[in-house]
């Protein structure tokens, strides 16, 4: 009956459901670590494969569109209102990847790691305070301070070795701002992971590909078929469909602060992997930075886990 107090028997069920949702959120956030680390490495690799940043974006949108078409048959067409759709496309579909791909033409993967997912916890925290009324608790400030110290060490170890990379760093920062705004929007409007992912995948290609084909510089004809196929699959399927879904699902399950603090581990993972794979070495300060970022991430996870119990 309306107004009747909930039965005490429902409390354990609610607790179990919340615990399950929290586990799903953390699993999705951890999976994003690997998808985003591969995105940084693959994007940096593309800058040496004779293709332009516009070409990489075209492969991203084409791959995502091909995978999204059969998914529509399962989940149906996303039905975001026009203005919300435009905002999601401007930030997640075009802003983040286009700034990132052009940034990798000037700066290495370690810079991209620091300036893209590395700055994301701070940008989302600032937006949360400004637009959602969130507070900066002492525990949250502590975890972000540890992450920030790690980022400074990681940056000090790698940024000086690449003079002129500041242009790429600014582009990376613009990309991180775009993704932070997208994170705010999905929380503010309650957009589901499926709806957001399919909206990005279905609308990006029809908008971008004709412009790219007729107007934008391209050297895609000089690229080996294997490299094209790799970027099509990774950028389109893994970085757009899979990572986009996992990130949005994590935000809806455990919140943006916990999700973005976990993904702050991406710079360290990417920098460590770029050492043997791309020949971009990491010194003692960089290794110490990776350790500090990991510690800050663990502080955040333990804090959110303890609060939920």
In total, how many domains does the architecture comprise?
1
Q: What is the makeup of the main sheet?
A: none
Output the helix-strand order: HHHHHHHHHHHH
Coarse morphology: globular
**SS summary, helix count:** 12
The fraction of residues in strands falls at: under 5%
| Residue share in helix | over 70%
| Rg over CA atoms | 20 Å
Mean pLDDT comes to 85
Q: Which residues form runs of ≥5 with pLDDT under 50?
A: 1-5
Question: Top keywords for this entry?
Answer:
mainly alpha, single chain, 309 residues
Could you explain the architecture of this structure?
The protein has one domain (18-308). It is mostly helical and 309 residues long. It is globular, with a radius of gyration of 20 Å. Helix content is 80%, strand content 0%. It is built from 12 helices and no strands.
Describe the structure concisely for a colleague.
The chain has 309 residues and is mainly α. It has twelve helices and no strands.
Which helices and strands, and how do they pair?
Elements: H1 10-46, H2 53-75, H3 82-103, H4 109-115, H5 120-132, H6 138-158, H7 166-189, H8 193-215, H9 225-254, H10 256-263, H11 266-278, H12 284-308
């Amino acid at each position: 009956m309306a107004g009747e107090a909930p039965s005490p028997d429902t409390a354990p069920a609610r607790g179990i459901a919340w615990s399950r949702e929290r586990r799903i959120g953390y699993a999705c956030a951890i999976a994003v670590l690997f998808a985003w680390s591969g995105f940084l490495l693959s994007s940096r690799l593309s800058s040496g494969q004779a293709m332009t940043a516009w070409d990489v974006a075209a492969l991203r949108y084409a791959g995502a569109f091909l995978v999204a078409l059969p998914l529509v048959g399962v989940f149906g067409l996303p039905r975001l209102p026009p203005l919300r759709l435009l905002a999601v496309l401007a930030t997640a579909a075009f802003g983040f990847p286009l700034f990132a791909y052009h940034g990798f033409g000037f700066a290495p993967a370690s810079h991209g790691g620091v300036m893209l997912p590395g700055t994301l916890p701070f940008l989302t925290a600032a937006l949360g305070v400004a637009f959602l009324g969130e507070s900066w608790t002492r525990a949250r400030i502590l975890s972000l301070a540890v992450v920030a110290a790690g980022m400074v060490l990681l940056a000090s170890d790698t940024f000086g070795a690449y003079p002129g990379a500041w242009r790429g760093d600014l582009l990376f920062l613009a990309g991180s701002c775009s993704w932070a705004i997208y994170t705010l929007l999905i929380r503010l409007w309650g957009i589901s992971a499926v709806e957001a992912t399919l909206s990005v995948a279905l609308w990006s290609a029809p908008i971008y590909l004709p412009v790219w084909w007729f107007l934008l510089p391209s050297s895609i004809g000089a690229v080996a078929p294997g490299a094209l196929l790799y970027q099509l699959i990774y950028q389109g399927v893994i970085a757009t469909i899979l990572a986009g879904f996992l990130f949005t699902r994590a935000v809806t399950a455990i919140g943006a602060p916990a999700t973005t603090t976990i993904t702050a581990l991406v710079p360290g993972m990417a920098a460590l992997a770029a050492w043997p794979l791309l020949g971009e070495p990491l010194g003692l300060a960089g290794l110490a930075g990776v350790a500090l970022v990991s510690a800050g991430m663990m502080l955040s996870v333990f804090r959110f886990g303890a609060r939920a119990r």
